[in-house]
From TrEMBL:
This is GHKL domain-containing protein. It comes from the Bacteria. The chain crosses the membrane at residues 6-23, 35-53, 59-75, 87-110, 122-139, 159-180, 186-206. PANTHER family: TWO-COMPONENT SENSOR HISTIDINE KINASE (PTHR40448:SF1). InterPro entries: HATPase_C_sf, NatK-like_C, Sig_transdc_His_kin_SpoOB. One of its GO terms (molecular function) is phosphorelay sensor kinase activity. Keywords: Kinase, Membrane, Phosphoprotein, Transferase, Transmembrane, Transmembrane helix. SUPFAM superfamilies: ATPase domain of HSP90 chaperone/DNA topoisomerase II/histidine kinase, Sporulation response regulatory protein Spo0B. The lineage of its organism: Bacteria, Bacillati, Bacillota, Clostridia, Eubacteriales. Residues 319-425 form the Sensor histidine kinase NatK-like C-terminal domain.
Length: 429
């Protein structure tokens, strides 16, 4: 009889454990202790042992619970990310495990009419088990390419949608496996293939979304840098033009001093000083962030907003600069927009501070705002403007970006001061 007892092949199981370990390790960050790696490998070994049989789910669901507990215990990622990875990988494994075993069962049942030697049955089972190796190799390659932990950074909402989609696929295939009869086990093969394709498609969509988001952020950063360099070029041309008139200016000053018009000479000299002083400021050592701050500083100045920027950020900050600049740009845009609506221009003020210390980057920005335009609904700040459907997304984007960087953000409004504070690990790339 075709029995699961024939699937006692330690070398094959160890290879499967190695491949499964690489899949999870490419998507998540495992703890550094050696005992956690060994314990997780032991759980994966158990995961390779049970066979997914028609009408029986005890082994499959039991391994799912054990695997979930191990992933939550041994990996350091956010819970929603760990949940999503489990729900992506496990349906792949369950579906292909059922297929690989059931293919052998169908061959034994319909091709050999249940008449095989014990050795033949052993070899057939071994061949079915070996099918899992190239399958997991392919999954490991795709996971490393599309779900690499250092490349994919989504908000909790996106991970939740991914988890629900994969959960629906898992529940569907488990229900079909439980309900299928022993004589028609092959009728759910298309459903197993569909479940596998769903998980693979989700991985590919994750990669597409990640690339799209990164391209958009990089585009914003490049536009900021381009504006910075255009400002630099324009100001250099202005200085070059002023140098041509230097002799004339010096002649005027010399004439005023010769006539003992000291006050007028000083006034004339001050006006020249203002013209020759390029407004390009050095806020920090990081060129990219400095370009962004200069562009936003000039934009705020044009709107009559006083700015106070204090930034301590090295050139190599050890962070994802694309997302960090997107976070700063969004908070500055919100601050400029909020300050612009303050009627009294002398009250328009934006204060920005940032520094790296103790392995973290702390960032805070404050601006004066009109009290009636900021409300708190369900624990979140929203705008009270009539066209509110076009506004208020910036704060949600800020929270998502901080979360993607592995940090936290706090948004508060007290009196007429609106503030955003973020704390981000300085080694999160």
């Amino acid at each position: 009889m075709f029995s699961p007892d024939y699937l006692i092949n330690i070398p094959v199981s160890l290879i499967l454990v190695y491949l499964l370990y690489r899949i999870f390790n490419s998507c998540l960050s495992i703890r550094s202790q050696i005992w956690t790696r060994l314990s997780f490998s032991a759980v994966l070994f158990l995961m390779t042992s049970p066979i997914v049989l028609p009408g029986e789910l005890t082994g499959s669901l039991g391994i799912l619970v054990l695997l979930s507990a191990a992933v939550f215990l041994f990996f350091t990622d956010r819970p929603i990310v760990k949940t999503a990875v489990i729900l992506i990988v496990y349906p792949l494994w369950v579906s292909f495990s059922y297929l690989s075993y059931n293919i052998g069962y169908v061959i034994w049942m319909y091709c050999f009419r249940q008449n095989m030697t014990e050795t033949g049955e052993m070899l057939l089972m071994l061949c079915c088990a070996l099918l899992k190796i190239p399958f997991l190799v392919l999954v490991e390659r795709l996971a490393g390419k599309w779900l690499a932990s250092g490349e994919i950074s989504f908000s909790s909402r996106i991970w939740a949608v991914i988890s629900l989609t994969c959960l629906a696929s898992l529940l569907g295939i488990i229900t079909l496996i439980y309900q299928v009869g022993s004589t028609g086990t092959f009728v759910i093969w298309p459903a197993c293939i569909a479940c596998i394709l769903t998980s693979v498609g989700i991985c590919y969509i994750c990669d597409l979304i990640s690339r799209s988001v990164r391209r958009a952020m990089e585009g914003d950063m490049l536009r900021t840098q381009q504006a910075y360099y255009e400002d630099l070029k324009r100001e250099q041309e202005e200085v070059r033009g002023l140098r041509h008139d230097m002799m004339n200016h010096l002649s005027v000053i010399q004439s005023l001093l010769g006539q003992n018009e000291t006050a007028q000479a000083q006034s004339y000299l001050k006006s020249l000083t203002r013209e020759f002083s390029a407004p390009l400021r050095v806020f920090c050592e990081n060129d990219t962030v400095n370009a962004l701050l200069n562009a936003k500083y000039r934009q705020a100045e044009e709107k009559g907003i006083e700015c106070s920027f204090m930034m301590e950020l090295p050139q190599d900050a050890g962070m994802d600069m694309v997302r960090l600049c997107s976070l700063m740009a969004n908070t500055l845009d919100n601050a400029i927009e909020g300050s612009e609506r303050v009627v009294e221009k002398q009250r328009r003020l934006i204060t920005l501070k940032g520094r790296c210390d103790g392995g973290y980057f702390s960032y805070s920005i404050e601006n004066r705002a009109v009290a009636g335009e900021v409300l708190r609904e369900k624990g979140r700040f929203v705008t009270a403007k009539k066209d509110s459907r076009f506004h208020g997304h910036g704060l949600r984007i800020i929270s998502d970006i901080a979360e993607e960087l592995g940090g936290t953000v706090d948004i508060s409004f007290s009196g007429d001061i609106f503030s955003v504070t973020a704390l981000i690990p300085a080694g999160k790339a």
